[in-house]
Specification:
The complex is a heterodimer. Chain A is an alpha/beta fold. In chain A, 44% of the residues lie in helices and 19% in strands. Chain A has 2 domains: 31-150 and 288-364, Response regulator (Rossmann fold), CATH 3.40.50; 152-286 and 366-390, 3-Layer(aba) Sandwich (Rossmann fold). Chain A contains 13 helices and 14 strands. Chain A has a 7-stranded mixed sheet with strand order 7-6-8-9-10-13-14, with helices on both faces. In chain A, α9 (263-266) links the parallel β9 and β10 (278-281). In chain A, α7 crosses α8 and α11 (309-328) packs across α12 (333-340). The model of chain A is unreliable at 1-28 (pLDDT under 50). The longest helix of chain B has 31 residues, at 2-32. Chain B is globular and about 75 Å long. The chains are: A alpha/beta, B mainly alpha. At the A-B interface, α1, α2, α3, α4 and β7 of A face α1, β1, β3, α9 and α10 of B.
């Protein structure tokens, strides 16, 4: 009877899924399809602006005549925040939808899972968001490129500012998973290189999404650090800031914080935004360049909302994908790789290049200080830092990255 | 010294918020025996509704009024859920209600994003409790002090309610012996509804009170539900005081634990629960459960092996399934492989649950161990695929042997929670031991060898192993060992009297189930080419439970159908819609109402009844009927 049901079930599965497969084959040759995967249901706060960003890019590209005359279509899938489901989606995009390349992903482990899939199946993959250094270095492969500035790059940008501080006693608070661990490790390493006199007096590792902020903040205060490195974000950051503010833990201490200046994470804090934190982020309100103005205007016209960093990432991911496809003039993965290595293109943050040596883009990030204005958190004293200035030397990367 | 006192008080404040939610869960479980998976969803709804109300109405009255009204509104929602949904399924097999509340949870997660949007919402601070109080140079937030007082107050009110009112007496009586209370003429329906309402009210209040310290978001429910369950179990099911003590214990251990081991939070509650359950199998304040009066398995139609015709039919179906590569493309074949793997996983849990009567909440641990076994053997030892597939599941076997030994000493929900604790411990090892397991970045590059690499070959491999696993497990069910296991399940005392060593039999069953799950995990590692801690996470354990319950826990092989339906639907929905959780949740709820014994269980019962009432049913149909067993 077991087989009976396997048969019946699979027959149903065939019937339902075959319909979608057929529509695929019926598609005309006048389209180029890109497969896109992200954690839409798990992380809507980030992925909704991200989706808006890439939808704007698709619209602009097609309005300008598409890619070498062909219409660009993005087929988007949700991975539910699970690496295994991301691979199922990747497989569907490649096998059933016949996409020219894969893009997207947010969480590092999902980015790595899709990158490994791409390597195995020989598919071009442009990772949008995952920050882990492994995706371009220790676990890098020739089919995978990455847009966003990595953990290492963001740490290096923050270290440049942090090293100028007089503080010698440092404590760290980071979510207990790979992102938090590697952010702290890189920051510590780079910081100690610049300032051998620094002492690391305490570290706290609350579980991601489940911080019990009161005891954590209190424990950090007990070590009496002069400065604090924070890597938590999202709901954890809100709790941390609230407890820290009430308990006066941030008073008289400098805080250096990853990602906190991104509207996704800064805006929820509203009038409780702590002032004077040194952060990386995206001050969309104070960037005055023609490239960014054009993007901002188009985005606000289309959505009647301001962009988040996710919007930039989504927008530039599809723009980059289109540029690579246009240059390659083909959807052959080898030609795509050849086209992508060293390609330069405009972006809302200025020109960026995908490096040949490790497939990392030179998209940078903004650093600045948090401040309060009209009951809202903003970034002030902002400076754009080019990604290319915060990467290790080629010789070091040769050592980190496995040979293809 | 002042620091330690402040840290202690901070721990107490965390304990108070935990206790509010836990007490509601404990009350609901104590009386209705419902494992209310939706408790976290009600907690989250409480926070969202309170956010809206406190933003709308200003001032102190608006804030505190908003919090209480929010809890009341959510309690009314809870009453509706109880009356419309749960009342229909109180007589379903044990744990079936878990399926209904799981479906609800899925729906609520998508609904709050639809209603309140995707952003994290940060609510107002509590009027009058915005600042901090100086304590020898240390600051204690005054809201923490408020919570510290509120916790014991709620405990006191609940105690009075249960000890000093007639309603409370009835609830306590129902907690001890539901059937007796019913026999004495108490209207059980309304008793259950009122208890459920109180429990939901407490959950929503707990959520609403988080507004001044937390950000309201759509993942709050899962963050709290497991932890709250653990607290309830540590305290002893149905014991309010137990829940309070356990909340304090867990929170204080966390507050001071992080001073010595900053990474302890991730696993602390589960470690505490494992230790408590091994030492005190009924929790700190719980009482040993009286032996069950009814046998857990219904005996509508006794299990029996397939007839020759049915075997031929099953074989034919297998042949049809094996012909899939002739018509389907690569994607469908890969999905087919995944479904076949989950059939193996589900039948292994089903074997433990239906034949052994042991519902494991942590079965994914053995699936994950099998997967990691393969990944480590393939990457570190460089063994060939066949050797990995044979040896990998042994890690699942070893895990099951160690944990099963302790777990089978317990029964019922305590057994379930101990398996959950073990699963979380294994998960945290995979998560934390970065140098060996790669942490949450997992182990990559575990791809099958050439002979199995093509989707059709891998599909045949998975299908073949799935068929083999189902056949072997069925043979075990109808072997002397299977009969001994069922005897232990149905009546521990009688089976012991006839000389069956129940614990040893159950332990063996646990190891068998764990090994088969490990086999599924081993195949899964090759299917995906990588292994992540997710592969042993809670959500996978819950998925397996859902598959078994969906198929029908009182059948011999219902899990096969449950796995196919759930997995196929899940993959299809995630691919087709952005609101897959909403649709899947609604589907699960519908199934629960339409098939109160699971899909196979209900069909079987229906057809059995019809066959009895009319003798004109054709023999062919009859054989089909029983094949559904």
């Amino acid at each position: 009877m077991r087989g009976y049901f396997v048969g019946a079930g699979l027959a149903i599965a065939v019937a339902t899924m075959a319909t979608s497969a057929m529509t695929t084959q019926a598609l005309a040759q006048s389209e180029i399809k890109i497969g896109e995967i992200n954690s839409y249901s798990l992380l809507p706060a980030f992925t909704e602006p991200y989706r808006k960003g890439w939808q704007l890019a698709v619209e602009e590209i097609n309005a300008a005549g598409g890619i070498n005359g062909k219409k660009l279509v993005v087929v988007s899938k949700d991975d539910g925040g699970k690496p295994a489901d991301a691979q199922t989606a990747a497989n569907e995009l490649v096998s059933s939808e016949n996409v020219a390349m894969l893009t997207g992903t947010f969480l590092s482990n999902i980015g790595l899972a899709v990158s490994d899939f791409a390597n195995q199946k020989k598919v071009f993959f442009l990772a949008a968001e995952p920050l882990t250094d492994a995706i371009t270095w220790s676990k890098g492969n020739r089919y995978t490129f990455r847009l966003r500035p990595s953990n290492y790059m963001q740490a290096a940008m923050l270290v440049e500012e942090a090293a100028k501080l007089p503080a010698k006693r440092w404590a760290t608070i980071a979510p207990n998973y790979e992102y938090g661990q590697s952010a702290v490790a890189v920051f510590k390493k780079l910081m100690s290189e610049k300032r051998p006199d620094i002492q690391w007096v305490d570290e706290q590792w609350p579980p991601q999404g489940k911080i019990d902020a009161g005891p954590v903040v209190q424990a950090v205060a007990a070590a009496n650090p002069e400065a604090i490195l924070n890597v938590t974000f999202g709901a954890d950051l809100v709790k941390l800031v609230r407890e820290g503010n009430t308990r006066g833990v941030f008073k008289g201490r400098t805080v250096v914080s990853f990602l906190t200046g991104e509207p996704e994470y800064l805006d929820p804090l509203k009038d409780e935004t702590p002032e004077g934190w040194i952060v990386t982020g995206y001050p969309w309100y104070s960037i005055k360049t023609p490239e960014h103005d054009a993007f901002l205007k188009a985005y606000q016209a289309k959505y009647n909302d301001y962009p988040r960093l996710g919007s930039i990432v989504g927008y530039q991911t599809i723009k980059a994908a289109a540029a690579i496809l246009a240059k390659a003039g083909s959807s052959d993965p080898e030609k795509l790789i050849a086209a992508a290595e060293g390609i330069s293109m405009p972006s809302p943050f200025g020109e960026i290049t995908f490096r040949k040596i490790d497939h990392q883009s030179t998209l940078g990030a903004f650093t600045g200080k948090t401040a309060l204005k009209d009951g809202k958190g903003i970034m002030v004293d902002t400076a754009y830092r080019k990604g290319s200035d915060y990467l290790p030397s080629d010789a070091e990367i040769e050592k980190l990255r496995p040979k293809d | 010294m002042a620091f330690y006192i402040v840290q202690f008080l901070t721990g107490l404040a965390s304990a108070a918020s935990l206790f509010l939610v836990a007490s509601g869960l404990s009350i609901i479980f104590g009386v209705t025996r419902i494992v209310n998976f939706a408790h976290g969803a009600f907690y989250m709804l409480g926070a969202y509704v309170a956010f809206t109300l406190t933003e709308r109405f200003s001032g102190a009255f608006g804030f505190w009024g908003g919090i209480v009204v929010a809890a009341l509104i959510v309690a009314v929602i809870g009453v509706l859920v109880e009356m419309v949904l749960l009342r229909r399924i109180y007589h379903s097999p044990e744990l079936f209600q878990l399926l209904a509340t799981f479906g609800l949870t899925l729906m609520v997660e998508d609904l709050v994003v639809l209603i309140w949007g995707p952003d994290d919402l940060v609510g107002r601070r509590a009027p009058g409790f915005k600042g901090a109080i100086d304590f020898f140079g240390q600051n204690i937030p005054s809201y923490d002090l408020f919570l510290i007082v509120l916790g014991p107050v709620v405990l006191g009110v609940l105690w009075l309610l249960f000890q000093r009112t007639r309603w409370g007496v009835l609830v306590r009586a129902a907690t001890q012996d539901r059937d007796m209370v019913a026999a004495l003429g108490v209207n059980q329906k309304w008793l259950f509804t009122s208890v459920f309402a109180l429990g939901v009210f407490l959950a929503a209040l707990g959520g609403a009170l988080q507004i001044p310290r937390d950000a309201v978001n759509h993942a709050m429910d899962l963050r709290v539900i497991v932890e709250v369950f653990v607290v309830v179990v540590i305290g002893g099911l149905g014991s309010i005081i137990g829940a309070f003590v356990a909340a304090v214990l867990v929170s204080e251990l966390n507050a001071f634990g992080i001073l010595i081991f900053p990474k302890i939070s991730i696993i602390l509650v589960f470690l505490v629960m494992a230790v408590v359950l091994i030492v005190r199998p009924w929790g700190l304040f719980g009482k040993p459960e009286a032996p069950a009066r009814r046998t857990p398995g219904l005996t509508v139609n006794p299990w029996r092996p397939l007839t020759t015709n049915e075997r031929l039919a099953a074989l034919a179906a297998l042949v049809v399934a094996a012909a899939l590569p002739l018509v389907a493309g690569n994607y469908l074949l890969t999905v087919g492989s995944e479904i076949a793997i989950f059939v193996i996983f589900a039948v292994s849990l089903h074997f433990l649950m239906s034949v052994g009567g042991l519902a494991s909440f942590g079965h994914a641990a053995y699936f994950g161990l099998g997967a990691y076994g393969v990944a480590l053997l393939a990457k570190m030892a460089g063994l060939p695929m066949i050797a990995c597939l044979l040896l990998g599941p042994l890690l699942g076997l070893m895990g099951a042997a160690v944990f099963g030994f302790f777990a089978v000493q317990l029964s019922g929900v305590y057994f379930a929670m101990l398996t959950l604790a073990f699963a979380q411990i294994v998960w945290s090892i995979a998560f934390q031991w970065v140098s060996v397991t790669g942490g949450d970045n997992g182990i990559l590059g575990v791809w099958p060898e050439k002979w199995a690499a093509s989707p059709s070959h891998f599909y045949w491999l998975s299908l073949g192993i799935a068929a083999l696993a189902v056949v072997i497990l069925r043979i075990i069910v109808f072997s002397p060992f299977g009969f001994a296991l069922r005897a232990t399940r149905d009546s521990p005392l009688r089976s012991e009297a006839v000389g069956i060593d129940g614990k040893r039999i159950q332990w063996t069953a646990f190891v068998i189930a764990g090994t088969v799950a490990g086999l599924a995990g081993a195949l899964f590692a090759y299917l995906k080419g990588s292994v992540f801690p997710d592969n042993m996470g809670i959500s996978l354990s819950v998925d397996a439970l859902v598959m078994v319950l969906l198929g029908g826990v009182e059948t011999v092989s219902g899990a096969v159908v449950g796995a196919i339906v759930y997995k196929a639907l899940n993959i299809w929905l995630v691919s087709q819609t952005d609101w897959s959780k909403l649709v899947l949740g609604a589907f699960v709820v519908l199934i629960v109402v339409a098939f109160p014994k699971g899909i196979v269980g209900t069909l079987e019962a229906l057809l059995y009844r019809r066959r009895k009432s009319s003798s004109s049913v054709s023999p062919l149909l009859t054989s089909r009927v029983e094949s559904a067993e």
